[in-house]
Fold 8-amino-7-oxononanoate synthase.
Amino acid sequence: MQLLADLEQQLQALDGQKLLRRRRTADTPCAPHVTVDGRKLLAFCSNDYLGLASHPRLIEALREGATRYGVGSGGSHLISGHSRAHALLEERLAEFVSPHLEQARALYFCTGYMANLAVLSALAGRDADLFSESLNHASLIDGTRLARAKVQVYAHGDTEALERLLKASSAKTKVVVTDSVFSMDGDLAPLPRLLALCEQYGAWLVVDDAHGFGVLGAQGRGALEHFNLRSPYLIYMGTLGKAAGVGGAFVAAHATVIEWMVQRARPYIYTTAGAPALAHALLTSIDLISGHEGAIRRAHLQQLIAQLKAALHLQRWQLFASDTAIQPVIIGQNAEALRASASLLEQGLWVTAIRPPTVPADTARLRVALSAAHTAADVDRVAQAINVAEAESVA
Ligand SMILES: *Cc1c(COP(=O)(O)O)cnc(C)c1O
């Protein structure tokens, strides 16, 4: 059959470029010490930045949620699937991020991917101009495709280029969209400057804080707290499957924006509401993030980040300038990044090699992701192993 033959040929081409991906199957919960494909490994590749994904209190809260609300929601939010658990979570999330938004209201989604599709498609219609940062996450890029607005991409961190585009735009609705913490580089967007531009030119600023929520800011409220921002122009998207340890996402903004999304965002309307038990568990997750335990975990994570940066001594490879839990070691060629990842794996260390199209060509890398669940000894082990892997790679 020709259709299958075509696909097989394309798969072989990917394999030839060292771009074929494979999934590894974990038998243990998300944690630093895991068993994957039958092997015990020390993992540095999850986004479980606070180590909450297998926290006993969250496991208990999920059990309690299932007992109270059952398992499935049975319907979309606008038909019959909107549970008290969802409503309570939305209230809690709105209150949590309210220092940064005017008249904050929050809307819960099953995934961040869908939240991004929903925000951009609902806000950036045919009459809008949409300005998108070049290193934005794939879900935002797909959101710009679903939106009917005219899309213009500005270079990474280039606020001057953005200002020129905003100045030239005569669209009634302008939307600027950016990751706060770039997921493959770990650096931060210049949010204060971006927000100043948006206020000056009357544009929404959509901030995807997937890697900041729970981690950044003294209380874990994320990038807006980190930069001490507050504005009615802000539309905030936080995910709940990374630092929050469970799953799902939320959009928080002025109540009018959220009401518009409830009425008009197709990725919100035409899908079954998430399991209420997850929403119930997330209430405990927000308690953990905002409480004493969250503060202690964030402080520990900061220590581990500083420790890793001090312990890596690279010659040819390059540690990207990042102060977040995402610490990329840029290697360059796909094959060399794969070899490095394989050599770490032989030593029982799981660090993923990230290749194009996730990152630009010739910037294949090891993405070391740290978690508050790691110990100083764990970080020492991975740093020494990367130092050795680089030395061996030269030889
Ligand atoms: C993970 C991620 C998403 C998607 O969130 P999910 O809840 O995993 O669907 C969106 N944006 C960024 C920057 C991410 O890293």
Summary: The mean pLDDT is 97. The pocket of pyridoxal-5'-phosphate is lined by residues 111-113, 116, 137, 139, 179, 183, 208, 210-211, 239, 241, 249 (CB under 6 Å).
